[in-house]
Design a protein that fits this description.
The structure is a homodimer of 600-residue chains. With 600 residues, the first copy, chain A, is of the alpha+beta class. The first copy, chain A, has 19 helices and 28 strands. In chain A, the strands form 8 sheets. Chain A has a 6-stranded mixed sheet, sandwiched between helices. In chain A, helix 4 packs parallel to helix 5, helix 14 crosses helix 19 and helix 16 runs antiparallel to helix 17. The longest helix of chain A is centred in the middle third of the chain and has 34 residues. Chain A is globular and about 70 Å long. The N terminus of chain A is likely disordered.
Chain lengths: 600, 600
């Protein structure tokens, strides 16, 4: 995960420009997307990083013969200027000055712009095509990606082994899921559904995989016919005999290279096909358009089915949160004990020490499979960078005079976790207590909210922000995201954020609640638990907590807490003690218990 | 305002069907809209009511030779079934089963559907046209409205007299407003702006009028050329010599009948014209399309300028809220005193008595011009109907054992008011105290909120609902609406509601905050004040109260109030006493003071 040297980057860009001449294009679009348009991609698909050195999780480069225009969102505006420094680059905000507008302003009329149609979804392609059309600029698909041509040491395509997701964890058999999908397709009068999201496919087929970090799924494509025949386009190397034997008869395994051909072969102008405009390659839509298919553009029905967890999935999530809670609680007790001691002997703990510790504590659980994302172990001002990651070069000491934040999560046999805790060690940084108290109040306000059926995430976001707003503070990220079941730790479509999200919250959804506050170069605070949505009073829903680990109370301004907030802290920690107690070391249990006692 | 008898309605419908045969159309669309697509229309334009008997403020009828399909929103679903009873009618929800879908399902392919192109805005026309296109059904403009043909006793077009809005109240001269509009038009490269919203025109020209109830504006159209020439299409009968003399030279008064012709004459394919898609007749767009104009479809720039009140407008609003507050406070003290007394002697006050009283109290102020909407004076279960209006047939007694609600407002020389108060008289209905306390808590929660710049209404709506949600209750209307300056009491575009509203709240905006709770057939509760948005902490805004009248505390569960809520009530009533005290009768002042004293 090191940043490529600038010299190498320059060579790559020059090599791509050579290919662009061969292809006779004036510009080439390089998004961070792979063929599945998700957050986690294989090393093989790190084309944007190979080309530009940019290592963020979202962004688009437009390479012309004059410049490499980098478009990233606010999370990465500092990082991109470091990783893509120098006069070869120009930098833009992905939303405020989007790439399609840049194209029209910087390319002469009638230009040709190349892109890989497997790596842009229809929504993005349409943005480029619509912006370019008035000036006669054309957006040209290039099926043989020129970066693959110039990338001598490109890692091979991943061949992670597929494993079966046992029914005891999945809770719902493939036959049942297929029948439900066929019902939806019948209602919509759709003959084929094209699924390109690996987590939807994994969930549907009750399998998991190992192709990309953090997201335990195989990269693959799938076409489901309303007749019940399922074509699964997956590299044969990923399937051992046991997995193959376990696959239902109606699932036919095919080579991924055959995906578009098969789609074309199945399609005619009398056929109706559903695709997701945000998460499928535009090449899929083009193939369907070529054959005159009637295309139903919609959010994948599997996304909408998978988002409501079944009782077994929910049970599994509750179980893995106990294991994860034990690890985080042990970590917390250890950290609070060790930070002052190590600092006193002049060998302070570092961010990477802490990262290693939480990893080891999670690994101690047999059902732990790996991390659910790149842990953020951040001391002092590093925690003010919301997407900070330690490295050999960045490994700050954790000092008792500063604050520390750990945002981490695991993949377990029975589910996925995500938790953030913020710690201090006796000496509070200036302004920390007031902000930490407000963050806690926001967390408490939202997680105790009852809200009516039909409520959407953007409608309740401010409930969490209000205590911060009251003192003139805010945080520049969402309040909550969906979480998968041994799948993506950032599972769409539900979300709690300022941005409009037109998905009704519903019982069985899993969401994080994670308000924070960040003071540049000083500290970062975030409190994050994961919740299940459950029914409340008639016509209402509420959040039911899943995450079990103490919320450090040292920095709370006790006088500013309401009776309800004190009661909440007491009850929450009582539950933590009850559920985790049997599995904790005496020291960790003792620390846990102090969080109950102080409110008694 | 009486409901037409069914027999008459039937005659009208049959007469229209006769006209439809002459026009060779299979259906005719009759919206409640006039040519300005606003909420308040002249008696001359009450075509929907004349035809169907429906008296609500929004709705659409589709008349075919078989049925009259009525489409209304949830507010009017009960009312429409009463007013449009009988087998001639069928009833639908305006949003859930919209009229354009109905058309495609109930008319044979290739049908002809007539409509008056002055009475449908482009957004509605497009809905009909897009829905009808696949089946070859055409939506035919009919310029000579057939209802006007059959309506023998149609009231004449209104000829309300225009008055000048003095600069001392308007705060900003016409020249300045024109210069600002020209700036916007220059930035947008627009040659002409077509303005069809009467309140925008009145605000722009610094005039007011008297064509429709409650909204003190002249119905008119306007075309502003970027050169600075303003063509004002207004019936000459509305302008006396003084007003004409006061008009700036660049304002040319023309007959409204010349509006579309003038628009066509001014337009060619090299001309760019801006129109509002929601509040202009589709005939305007069609005229522009006919001439090949480049049409800029956008929210009117005058809507976006007018929404931010200038300092003089704000000062005027503060002033008229004192006059209005005196009237409402006197009313409240009188009501609380009289209701038990009148009941005791067997001659209870009625809803209409109360309505007459508040009217008389407002009329006592020299600057009062009229009501800003049809007051809702509602006792007991009548208050559970959010749009209840008294009538000769509906005039319930106000009994001390039930609750009473008054929602009313005035137009004053210096501004517009809107206030709701809910009253009890010693004996509380079952469940009232808990709900009233939650409504107050919601009101308090929102009006004390500080929120960041960039916040939009839908993001903060839940802050107001939460106390109700906590106990499993909610209200089925918005939380707050914009209010004009001696203009519409429901001024768009800003709004606080569950529905998404993409308008950033901004300092200088005026909004109501009005949570409520309604228990069918038992009671209705609403607390409504009007607020100005002002700057708060750096980067934040907050609400500053304008409305001054005690909030009855008798029904509040005092033990359930927080210290902050008690402090708020004390401070609010202290301000009411200070600002209104000099103008109140001793009895009203004494009652006012009790609201302060109980929290001391």
């Amino acid at each position: 995960m090191t940043t490529p040297k600038f010299a190498t980057t320059a060579e790559h860009i020059l090599a791509l420009r050579g290919q662009m001449k061969v292809l006779e294009v004036d510009a080439f679009v390089v998004p961070r997307f792979d063929a599945h348009q998700g957050e986690y991609i294989a090393a093989h698909d790190e084309r944007l990083r190979f080309l530009t050195g940019f290592s963020g999780s979202a962004g688009i480069a437009i390479v012309t013969h004059d410049t490499v225009a980098m478009f990233v969102d606010g999370r990465y505006s500092v990082q991109v200027r470091e990783e893509c420094a120098g006069e070869m680059f120009s930098h833009y905000h992905l939303f405020d000055s989007p790439p399609e507008t840049w194209l029209t302003q910087h390319l002469p009329a009638g230009s040709r712009v190349g892109f890989d149609p497997m790596h842009l979804p229809p929504v993005w392609f349409d943005r480029f095509a619509n912006a370019a059309a008035p000036s006669g600029t054309t957006i040209q698909p290039v099926f043989a990606n020129p970066i693959d041509t110039i990338w001598n040491e490109q890692p091979p395509k991943p061949e992670g082994q597929v494993v079966t997701m046992p029914l005891q964890f999945a809770g719902r058999g493939f036959d049942d899921k297929l029948a439900a999908l066929i019902d939806i397709m019948t209602q919509q009068d759709v003959h084929f559904h094209v699924e390109t999201q690996p987590d939807n496919i994994a969930w549907f087929l009750n399998v998991r995989g190992d192709d990309v970090a953090f997201l335990p799924v195989p990269l693959s494509f799938m076409i489901v016919a309303r007749t019940g025949v399922v074509s699964w386009f997956i590299a044969p190397e990923k399937l051992n005999q046991d997995v193959k034997d376990a696959l239902p008869d109606m699932v036919h395994c095919l080579d991924p290279d055959a995906f578009l051909h098969a789609l074309r072969d199945a399609t005619s102008d009398s056929v109706r096909v559903s695709i997701d405009p945000d998460f499928s390659p535009v090449a899929v839509r083009s193939a369907l358009e070529d054959k005159g298919a009637n295309i139903q553009v919609q959010r994948s029905p599997l996304t909408l089915t998978k988002m409501i967890k079944n009782p077994t999935e929910l049970e599994g999530l509750r179980a893995c949160h106990i294991e994860d809670g034990v690890a985080v609680t042990e970590f917390s007790a250890w950290l609070i004990d060790q930070v002052p001691k190590q600092a006193a002997i002049g060998i302070p703990l570092t961010e990477r020490d802490a990262e290693a510790k939480i990893l080891a504590l999670r690994q101690a659980h047999a059902s732990y499979l790996g991390d659910s994302f790149n842990a953020i172990s951040a001391a002092a001002g590093n925690a003010a960078m919301c997407h900070y990651a330690t490295s050999e070069n960045s490994n700050a000491p954790i000092l008792p005079t500063a604050a520390y934040l750990l945002d981490s999560g695991g993949q377990y046999e029975t589910g996925t976790t995500d938790i953030t805790r913020s710690f201090t060690f006796g000496t509070l940084p200036q302004g920390y207590a007031k902000a930490y108290t407000a963050v806690f109040k926001g967390f408490h306000a939202l997680c105790t909210l009852q809200f009516p059926h039909g409520t959407q995430g953007h409608q309740i976001d401010a409930v969490c922000r209000r205590p911060l707003w009251d003192i003139g503070l805010d945080y520049d990220h969402g309040t909550g995201h969906g979480i998968g079941h041994r799948l993506s730790v950032h599972e769409h479509p539900q979300r709690i954020a300022k941005q409009v999200n037109h998905v009704d919250l519903a019982p069985g959804m899993i969401l994080s609640i994670e308000p924070g506050y960040y003071l540049a170069e000083q500290f970062g605070i975030r409190i994050e638990n994961v919740f299940e949505i459950v029914e409340g009073d008639k016509g209402f829903m509420r959040f039911q907590n899943l995450t079990l680990a103490p919320i450090q109370t040292d920095a709370l301004l006790m006088d500013a807490l309401t009776d309800a907030e004190r009661e909440f802290l007491k009850n929450y920690h009582q539950i933590v003690v009850e559920k985790l107690g049997p599995f904790l070391t005496p020291a960790a249990l003792a620390w846990c218990q102090t969080n109950v006692d102080q409110f008694s």
